[in-house]
Amino acid sequence: RMIINSIRQFLSLTSQQQADILNGLRTKENLFEWLEKKKPKLEIEPHWVTCNKCSGKGQIFIEPRDNNGIHASQIHLCKRKLWFDVKGYGNHHQSENSGKLNLIFDHGTALHEMLQNYGSKGAWGANYFPEVKLLPTEEQCLAKGTPVYPLAIKYQVKSSVDAVVRLIPVENVTGIGTIYIDVVHEYKSIGSNGYNQLTQAKAVHKMQGIVYQAVLDIPITVFIYYDKDHDDLKCYPTKFDGYVWAEVEDKIQEVLFMADQEDAKEAIPDHKSAGILNPSECTGGAYSSACMYYKKICFPPIEVPDVIIPAEVVKKKLGRPKKNVGTPILS
């Protein structure tokens, strides 16, 4: 064992030894191995802990996470997944992500905190409120000291809005002059390929935003997409869409109507589940987690699409078709 603690000591090694050290640091590999093992800690009892964001100068109160309810960020997903959420199964299961996926999620969290920090310092005016809580019971609202929103209680919505900006002045409105309006902010990080294709907010994000708008009675959500490859922004102010809300409201009502059922397949039959409609929601992908319930308590009949052999492969195997082979017989 050797400890190298100076430049001179390192440079005294052979070129091969130096190369072995440079190549053996495993900086990326160690990070991804750590991220692979990283899981949110399941808190059992409420308790105070030292805050790790202010150099230990303060304390924050940690509570067991309660996943019961309808989460706006999940509203575009499988009805059966939402049913499991409402039933409280989310308190006993966690997503198992790859190291790279955890890195992507943590990067998104850091972006949210950056933009919320800008907002809290006045980037969008004096009336900026980050992390607005929507809770499904009056008791939880009282305990948290948050306002009671009747629609959140009616539809068991449990979510945290990225930000609400109140009384934004807008000048030169036709026939009125200056108006003041509240808006919802929703922040999204995205790679440059997806960013370059954006012309409006994504449909799945509109479904999320419409829940916030309906519960808070705010007519506009501004979706802010951050290009993490080139540090640029696209902002899409999006007005309340009654058709999108009707679709979302019907979905919530269907899930809540079946909340007393105890059998998942009776509550949400297979043909209404992602197993049939969109299997990638179950299995996950490069930029999305596998469903936390998949192959644990939910066993949908995942349909594997037929394999289509490209035409050029067929040509290579069979050669070019012969001419004048006659008329095929139809059976």
Structure in words:
The chain has 331 residues and is α+β, with helices and mostly antiparallel strands. The protein is built from 14 helices and seven strands. It has a five-stranded mixed sheet, sandwiched between helices. Strands 1-2 form a two-stranded antiparallel sheet. Strand 1 and strand 2 form a beta hairpin. Helix 3 (27-37) crosses helix 5 and helix 4 crosses helix 10 (242-257). The longest helix is centred in the first third of the chain and has 22 residues, at 99-120. It is globular, with a radius of gyration of 26 Å. The termini are far apart. 21% of the residues are buried.
What keywords describe this structure?
single chain; 331 residues; alpha+beta; two-stranded antiparallel sheet; 14 helices; 7 strands; globular
**Unreliable stretches:** 306-331
Please trace the helix and strand order, writing H or E for each element. Answer: HHHEEHHEHHEEHHEEHHHHH
The main sheet comes to: 5 strands, mixed
Structural class: alpha+beta
* Number of helical regions: 14
Taken as a percent bin, the fraction of beta residues is 15-25%
What gap, in angstroms, lies between the N and C termini?
78 Å
What does the radius of gyration come to?
26 Å
Q: What general form does the structure show?
A: globular
Total strands: the figure is 7
Provide the residue-averaged pLDDT. 84
Helix content: 25-40%
Reading side by side through the largest sheet, how are the strands ordered? 3-4-5-6-7
